[in-house]
Write a structure and sequence with these properties.
The protein has 260 residues and is an alpha/beta fold. The protein has helices at residues 18-27, 43-52, 75-84, 105-122, 134-143, 160-168, 185-193, 229-240, 244-256, and strands at 3-7, 32-36, 57-61, 90-97, 126-131, 151-153, 171-176, 199-202. The protein is globular and about 45 Å long. Bound molecules: zinc ion. Residues 6, 8, 36, 93, 204, 207 line the site of zinc ion.
Length: 260
């Protein structure tokens, strides 16, 4: 069991057909993946992948903070509908990003808060992106009347202090191969200290390509292939010890399976 807990298989950047990507993923022993939408315009492409690769692709629908200004009237109702149409569907990718100037934080925050509400209401987990916006994220949490019981901090690159605060809120954390870079070692050190039952693995493909040594499947222009998860998992195992992958597999079952 090896699940890519966060990727964007619907992206047009691979220069390769999804069927081929999935075949290569399966060839390395990957047993499933969570495909995250980024804006309403790609929800149908994600749904199509979930239908075509049923049992392998789990869809996540949402508006990424970079696209918070693309929402059109009625989007919340349509998001609810997407979630209700598939019991396996979760909410993602959503979040806050202080690294981009536009859309502004106010716009991002409004769209994020609404999606957290929809996750709560529909009883789904959510995949959260947070970059240079920890204070904003904690302020959203503090202001919220209720917060989903569990959620994923994807490509987590924060400090142990941030992680500890998030743990109390029900966070799980996925490690991205990008952080195998020598200069990003502190991220691995944080994962070493996290509770083992809160750890998942991801590629975030086509983004977040790992350092060259860990890239078995290369594509054009530094595009990350989701099958690189196998190499990421092996490197992670070397760092965190032999039992970690069995634990991550169990965690994947736990986190992505809906209760009841
Ligand atoms: Zn992503």
């Amino acid at each position: 069991m090896l699940i890519d807990s966060h990727n964007h298989l619907q992206s047009g950047r691979y220069g390769r057909e999804a069927g081929e990507l999935v075949r290569e993923m399966k060839g390395t022993g990957i047993t499933g993946c969570v495909v995250n939408a980024t804006r309403e315009g790609d929800w149908e492409a994600v749904a199509e992948l979930a239908r075509r690769f049923a049992g392998f692709v789990m869809p996540a629908y949402g508006i990424h903070p970079w696209f918070a200004d693309t929402v059109e009237d009625g989007w919340e109702g349509r998001l609810r509908k997407r979630l209700q149409s598939d019991p396996q569907a979760t909410v993602g990718e959503i979040g806050l990003d202080g690294w981009v100037d536009s859309p502004g934080m106010d716009v991002q925050r409004e769209v994020f808060v609404k999606q957290v509400g929809i996750a709560l209401e529909t009883g789904r987990v959510m995949s959260v992106h947070c970059l240079k916006a920890w204070d904003e994220l904690f302020s959203v949490m503090d202001e919220a009347e209720a917060w989903p019981e569990k959620f994923l901090m994807h490509s987590f690159g924060g400090s142990i202090e941030v992680a500890e605060r998030l743990l109390k809120k029900g966070a799980w954390f996925s490690f991205s191969g990008y952080f195998l870079q020598a200069r990003k070692r502190k991220v691995l050190e944080v994962f070493r200290q996290l509770p083992r039952d809160r750890i998942l693995l991801e590629t975030d493909a086509p983004e977040m390509i790992p350092p060259e040594d860990f890239v078995e499947f290369s594509l054009v222009d530094n595009v990350n292939h989701p099958a690189n998860l196998r190499g990421i998992a092996e490197a992670f195992e070397k760092e965190l010890g032999a039992e970690i992958l069995a634990r991550v597999a169990e965690n994947g079952m736990d986190f992505w399976r809906r209760p009841g």
